[in-house]
Amino acid sequence: EAQVTQNPRYLITVTGKKLTVTCSQNMNHEYMSWYRQDPGLGLRQIYYSMNVEVTDKGDVPEGYKVSRKEKRNFPLILESPSPNQTSLYFCASSLSRDRDNEQFFGPGTRLTVL
Amino acid sequence: EDQVTQSPEALRLQEGESSSLNCSYTVSGLRGLFWYRQDPGKGPEFLFTLYSAGEEKEKERLKATLTKKESFLHITAPKPEDSATYLCAVPGSYNTDKLIFGTGTRLQVFP
Lengths: 114, 111
What we know:
The structure holds two protein chains of two kinds. By secondary structure, chain A is mainly beta.
């Protein structure tokens, strides 16, 4: 089954404790992206990757890191999480960098930083 | 500045009561407008892509239309299972690799 998976689905952590949210897709997609979703603000893009070893900042990259060492995986790293990073996070992928391609979204990761 | 605005924020309909959701955008050189449906606690699910003014696409009770400044999602005779948040998104003007989302319209359809 074609899908985007994220782990963990739920995470409660404390300020400053490094964490990684994994994202994997099995569709051989080139383009992958991370979003955060907050009430009243909608979905905002954090980082995106057009292919292996190619990443770029979205609209809200501060406090986040990403890597794309393999085509299928695109982990999101919070080196020193803070309470304002409490949010619902989505990973997405699409076939290519051509923005005409629909994006497939993962199920989301709900992160709480205390 | 690139911007996507959706209205209304929330919409309550009786089953069978048709209505429209609006998505207005300010980007240069539109390269597609996307509509997504999002159920509570889930990731957005793709519905349509529209590319040029005058284009229309349909799926069951949903029809999406596009003009030069806005898109409409028409819902005909909605059912309770159409209840969801509907999101629209466009690629950015200067960086088309970025996708800009509106804040969505939360639709509730009551039997």
